[in-house]
Protein backbone atom coordinates (compact mmCIF):
# COMPACT_ATOMS: atom_id res chain seq x y z
CA UNK A 1 0.00 0.00 0.00
CA UNK A 2 1.61 3.28 -1.11
CA UNK A 3 1.16 6.24 1.17
CA UNK A 4 0.46 9.88 0.40
CA UNK A 5 4.18 10.62 0.40
CA UNK A 6 5.20 8.09 -2.22
CA UNK A 7 5.62 10.53 -5.13
CA UNK A 8 9.07 12.15 -4.99
CA UNK A 9 10.50 14.75 -7.34
CA UNK A 10 13.77 16.63 -7.59
CA UNK A 11 14.17 20.41 -7.43
CA UNK A 12 16.90 22.93 -6.72
CA UNK A 13 16.03 22.84 -3.02
CA UNK A 14 16.52 19.06 -2.84
CA UNK A 15 14.00 16.27 -2.70
CA UNK A 16 10.39 17.41 -2.54
CA UNK A 17 7.16 15.47 -2.29
CA UNK A 18 3.76 15.79 -3.85
CA UNK A 19 1.28 15.32 -1.01
CA UNK A 20 -2.32 16.50 -1.17
CA UNK A 21 -1.32 18.77 -4.05
CA UNK A 22 1.39 20.61 -2.07
CA UNK A 23 5.13 20.61 -2.65
CA UNK A 24 7.16 20.38 0.54
CA UNK A 25 10.86 21.23 0.67
CA UNK A 26 13.10 19.50 3.20
CA UNK A 27 14.12 21.35 6.34
CA UNK A 28 17.63 21.04 7.76
CA UNK A 29 19.51 22.59 10.63
CA UNK A 30 20.91 25.94 9.54
CA UNK A 31 24.30 25.64 7.89
CA UNK A 32 26.16 27.64 10.55
CA UNK A 33 25.52 25.12 13.34
CA UNK A 34 28.62 23.20 14.44
CA UNK A 35 28.68 19.38 14.40
CA UNK A 36 26.35 17.68 16.86
CA UNK A 37 26.46 14.35 18.71
CA UNK A 38 23.90 12.20 16.96
CA UNK A 39 23.67 8.49 16.21
CA UNK A 40 21.19 7.06 13.66
CA UNK A 41 20.03 3.45 13.20
CA UNK A 42 17.96 2.09 10.30
CA UNK A 43 16.30 -1.36 10.45
CA UNK A 44 15.35 -3.29 7.34
CA UNK A 45 15.78 -6.22 4.94
CA UNK A 46 18.70 -7.27 2.72
CA UNK A 47 22.28 -6.23 3.41
CA UNK A 48 23.42 -2.65 3.91
CA UNK A 49 24.41 0.04 3.67
CA UNK A 50 21.33 1.99 4.60
CA UNK A 51 19.58 3.79 1.76
CA UNK A 52 18.74 6.58 4.21
CA UNK A 53 21.03 9.64 4.12
CA UNK A 54 20.46 12.89 5.98
CA UNK A 55 18.01 13.94 8.70
CA UNK A 56 14.70 12.47 9.77
CA UNK A 57 12.65 14.31 12.43
CA UNK A 58 15.97 15.69 13.65
CA UNK A 59 19.40 15.70 12.11
CA UNK A 60 22.77 17.30 11.57
CA UNK A 61 23.28 17.71 7.82
CA UNK A 62 21.89 16.45 4.53
CA UNK A 63 24.65 13.80 4.51
CA UNK A 64 24.04 12.30 7.98
CA UNK A 65 25.22 8.68 8.20
CA UNK A 66 22.79 5.90 9.20
CA UNK A 67 23.96 2.63 10.72
CA UNK A 68 22.10 -0.32 9.23
CA UNK A 69 20.76 -3.43 10.97
CA UNK A 70 19.42 -6.12 8.63
CA UNK A 71 17.29 -9.08 9.60
CA UNK A 72 19.02 -11.00 6.76
CA UNK A 73 22.18 -12.95 7.58
CA UNK A 74 23.83 -12.70 4.16
CA UNK A 75 23.36 -16.41 3.41
CA UNK A 76 19.77 -16.34 2.22
CA UNK A 77 18.32 -16.80 5.70
CA UNK A 78 16.56 -14.60 8.24
CA UNK A 79 17.95 -14.01 11.70
CA UNK A 80 15.93 -13.42 14.86
CA UNK A 81 18.83 -11.80 16.73
CA UNK A 82 22.01 -9.94 15.91
CA UNK A 83 24.30 -7.07 16.86
CA UNK A 84 26.20 -4.03 15.62
CA UNK A 85 29.52 -2.95 17.16
CA UNK A 86 31.28 0.42 17.11
CA UNK A 87 28.46 2.17 15.32
CA UNK A 88 29.22 5.49 13.62
CA UNK A 89 28.01 8.90 14.68
CA UNK A 90 26.06 10.92 12.11
CA UNK A 91 29.27 12.66 11.01
CA UNK A 92 30.82 9.29 10.12
CA UNK A 93 33.24 9.00 13.04
CA UNK A 94 33.41 5.65 14.84
CA UNK A 95 31.91 5.41 18.34
CA UNK A 96 32.15 2.97 21.21
CA UNK A 97 28.40 2.38 21.01
CA UNK A 98 27.03 -1.08 20.28
CA UNK A 99 23.57 -2.55 19.82
CA UNK A 100 21.93 -5.95 20.18
CA UNK A 101 18.56 -6.91 18.68
CA UNK A 102 16.38 -9.85 19.70
CA UNK A 103 13.16 -11.43 18.39
CA UNK A 104 13.21 -9.39 15.16
CA UNK A 105 12.95 -11.96 12.39
CA UNK A 106 9.96 -10.36 10.65
CA UNK A 107 10.22 -7.55 8.10
CA UNK A 108 7.63 -5.73 5.99
CA UNK A 109 7.09 -2.43 4.20
CA UNK A 110 4.48 0.28 4.64
CA UNK A 111 4.92 2.09 1.30
CA UNK A 112 6.57 5.21 2.70
CA UNK A 113 8.93 7.19 0.49
CA UNK A 114 11.46 7.65 3.27
CA UNK A 115 13.88 4.68 3.05
CA UNK A 116 14.29 4.41 6.81
CA UNK A 117 10.58 4.57 7.65
CA UNK A 118 9.51 2.38 4.72
CA UNK A 119 10.69 -0.93 6.20
CA UNK A 120 10.14 -2.15 9.73
CA UNK A 121 11.11 -5.22 11.74
CA UNK A 122 8.70 -7.10 13.98
CA UNK A 123 8.75 -10.23 16.20
CA UNK A 124 8.44 -13.67 14.69
CA UNK A 125 7.97 -15.43 18.04
CA UNK A 126 5.84 -14.76 21.13
CA UNK A 127 6.93 -11.78 23.16
CA UNK A 128 8.28 -8.37 22.28
CA UNK A 129 11.10 -7.16 20.07
CA UNK A 130 13.99 -5.71 22.06
CA UNK A 131 16.87 -3.40 21.18
CA UNK A 132 19.67 -2.82 23.70
CA UNK A 133 22.07 0.10 23.21
CA UNK A 134 25.40 -0.31 25.02
CA UNK A 135 28.43 1.83 25.89
CA UNK A 136 26.88 5.25 25.36
CA UNK A 137 28.99 8.01 26.96
CA UNK A 138 27.48 9.29 30.21
CA UNK A 139 25.04 12.16 29.81
CA UNK A 140 21.46 13.08 28.98
CA UNK A 141 19.93 11.84 25.73
CA UNK A 142 16.82 12.18 23.60
CA UNK A 143 15.71 8.96 21.88
CA UNK A 144 13.65 9.29 18.70
CA UNK A 145 12.00 5.96 17.83
CA UNK A 146 10.18 5.33 14.54
CA UNK A 147 7.72 2.61 13.62
CA UNK A 148 4.37 1.92 11.97
CA UNK A 149 2.96 -1.02 10.03
CA UNK A 150 1.27 -0.88 6.65
CA UNK A 151 -2.24 -0.68 8.14
CA UNK A 152 -3.60 2.25 10.15
CA UNK A 153 -4.02 0.19 13.34
CA UNK A 154 -0.49 -1.26 13.24
CA UNK A 155 1.27 1.35 15.34
CA UNK A 156 4.53 1.31 17.23
CA UNK A 157 4.39 0.96 21.02
CA UNK A 158 7.75 1.57 22.71
CA UNK A 159 8.94 1.18 26.28
CA UNK A 160 12.38 2.54 27.20
CA UNK A 161 14.60 2.03 30.23
CA UNK A 162 18.10 3.26 31.05
CA UNK A 163 19.84 0.91 33.42
CA UNK A 164 17.07 0.08 35.90
CA UNK A 165 15.25 3.39 35.37
CA UNK A 166 11.96 2.97 33.54
CA UNK A 167 11.26 5.93 31.23
CA UNK A 168 7.70 4.89 30.44
CA UNK A 169 5.84 3.90 27.27
CA UNK A 170 4.90 5.92 24.19
CA UNK A 171 3.20 5.00 20.94
CA UNK A 172 2.72 6.20 17.38
CA UNK A 173 -0.67 6.80 15.80
CA UNK A 174 -3.11 3.88 16.00
CA UNK A 175 -6.43 5.30 14.76
CA UNK A 176 -5.80 7.67 11.89
CA UNK A 177 -3.84 8.39 8.73
CA UNK A 178 -1.45 11.01 10.12
CA UNK A 179 1.41 8.49 10.03
CA UNK A 180 1.19 8.72 6.21
CA UNK A 181 1.99 12.45 6.23
CA UNK A 182 4.70 13.85 3.98
CA UNK A 183 6.26 15.57 7.00
CA UNK A 184 7.50 14.16 10.27
CA UNK A 185 4.82 14.52 12.95
CA UNK A 186 5.56 13.79 16.60
CA UNK A 187 3.26 11.03 17.86
CA UNK A 188 2.33 9.95 14.33
CA UNK A 189 5.40 8.24 12.81
CA UNK A 190 7.73 8.60 15.79
CA UNK A 191 7.97 9.22 19.53
CA UNK A 192 10.63 11.01 21.62
CA UNK A 193 11.89 10.06 25.06
CA UNK A 194 13.48 13.28 26.34
CA UNK A 195 16.28 13.79 28.87
CA UNK A 196 17.06 10.14 29.45
CA UNK A 197 20.06 9.77 31.83
CA UNK A 198 22.82 7.35 30.89
CA UNK A 199 25.44 6.63 33.57
CA UNK A 200 28.79 4.92 32.97
CA UNK A 201 27.70 3.12 29.84
CA UNK A 202 24.64 1.48 31.40
CA UNK A 203 22.54 -0.24 28.72
CA UNK A 204 19.47 1.46 27.32
CA UNK A 205 16.72 -1.03 26.49
CA UNK A 206 13.99 -0.30 23.97
CA UNK A 207 11.13 -2.79 23.87
CA UNK A 208 8.76 -2.70 20.90
CA UNK A 209 5.54 -3.94 22.48
CA UNK A 210 2.68 -5.68 20.71
CA UNK A 211 0.11 -3.22 19.40
CA UNK A 212 -3.64 -3.74 19.06
CA UNK A 213 -3.03 -5.57 15.77
CA UNK A 214 -0.59 -7.95 17.46
CA UNK A 215 2.66 -6.76 15.84
CA UNK A 216 5.51 -4.66 17.24
CA UNK A 217 7.05 -2.61 14.40
CA UNK A 218 10.30 -0.66 14.65
CA UNK A 219 11.86 1.16 11.69
CA UNK A 220 14.58 3.40 13.09
CA UNK A 221 16.18 5.15 16.05
CA UNK A 222 17.94 8.48 16.49
CA UNK A 223 20.00 9.06 19.64
CA UNK A 224 20.77 12.68 20.52
CA UNK A 225 23.33 13.58 23.21
CA UNK A 226 21.90 16.58 25.03
CA UNK A 227 25.16 18.30 26.05
CA UNK A 228 25.35 19.64 22.50
CA UNK A 229 23.41 22.96 22.76
CA UNK A 230 22.97 23.52 18.98
CA UNK A 231 21.11 20.23 18.54
CA UNK A 232 19.01 20.76 21.65
CA UNK A 233 17.99 24.18 20.35
CA UNK A 234 17.21 22.88 16.88
CA UNK A 235 15.20 19.99 18.32
CA UNK A 236 13.20 22.33 20.57
CA UNK A 237 12.31 24.50 17.58
CA UNK A 238 11.14 21.46 15.62
CA UNK A 239 9.04 20.16 18.49
CA UNK A 240 7.40 23.54 18.91
CA UNK A 241 6.42 23.19 15.28
CA UNK A 242 4.80 19.82 16.09
CA UNK A 243 7.62 17.87 14.50
CA UNK A 244 6.90 19.32 11.07
CA UNK A 245 10.07 18.35 9.21
CA UNK A 246 9.88 17.00 5.66
CA UNK A 247 10.60 13.32 5.10
CA UNK A 248 12.14 14.15 1.73
CA UNK A 249 15.86 14.11 2.38
What can you see in these coordinates?
- The chain is 6% helix and 37% strand.
- It has one domain: Sandwich (Jelly Rolls).
- It is built from 2 helices and 18 strands.
- It is mainly beta and 249 residues long.
- Residues 1-35 and 229-237 have low confidence and may be disordered.
Task: Please outline what is shown here.
This protein has 249 residues and is mostly beta strands. The protein has one domain: Jelly Rolls (Sandwich). The chain is built from two helices and 18 strands.
Q: Can you count the beta strands?
A: 18
Strand content: 35-45%
Domain count: 1
Mean pLDDT: 82
Q: Which architecture does the CATH hierarchy give at level 2?
A: Sandwich
The side-by-side strand order for the widest beta sheet comes to 6-7-10-16-12-13
CATH topology: Jelly Rolls
Structural class: mainly beta
Q: Biggest β-sheet, characterized? A: 6 strands, antiparallel
- Rg, Å, rounded: 17 Å
Compute the separation of the termini in Å.
Answer: 21 Å
Helix content: under 10%
Low-confidence stretches: 1-35, 229-237
Count helical runs.
Answer: 2
Question: In terms of topology, how is this protein built?
Answer:
Blueprint: E1 8-11, E2 14-19, E3 22-24, E4 38-44, E5 67-70, E6 82-84, E7 98-102, E8 106-109, H1 115-118, E9 119-122, E10 129-134, E11 139-146, E12 157-162, E13 165-171, E14 183-184, E15 190-198, E16 204-209, E17 220-225, H2 229-240, E18 245-246
Parallel strand pairs: 4-5
Antiparallel strand pairs: 1-2, 2-3, 4-17, 6-7, 7-10, 8-9, 10-16, 11-15, 11-17, 12-13, 12-16, 14-18
Amino acid sequence: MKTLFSQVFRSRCGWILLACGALVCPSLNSGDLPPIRLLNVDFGPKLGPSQKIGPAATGQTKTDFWNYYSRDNGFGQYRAAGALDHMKWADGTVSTVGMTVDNAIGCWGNGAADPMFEYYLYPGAPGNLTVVITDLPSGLYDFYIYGHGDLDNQNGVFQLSSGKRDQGTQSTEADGVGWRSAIWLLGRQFVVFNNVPVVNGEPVTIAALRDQAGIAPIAGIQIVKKDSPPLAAATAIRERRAGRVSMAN
